[in-house]
Amino acid sequence: MIEITKVSTKGQVVIPQDIRKDLGLITGTSVLVTKMNDFVLLKKVSIPDVKREFEQLAKWGSRWAKNKGIKSEEDVMRIIHQGRGVKSA
Q1: How much is the mean pLDDT over the chain?
Q2: Distance between CA atoms of 52 and 74, rounded to whole angstroms?
């Protein structure tokens, strides 16, 4: 399927309805954009929810630290100094 579209004054390009439908492109869909020579390539991508990912990582880190007996920033610094062979104050 080949269609012609134009670039708007804001640099926006309309993706024809049939192509959007075929690819499942709906409002808010993330699209990767790159160029190859004189081609502009678009690829539908799934980008994770960064806030949710960070929250999950923080929970995992808290559980891991608790299992290791790490309760404070001082504990972290002590472990780092031990690993480096530095005497802590």
Answers
A1: 89
A2: 28
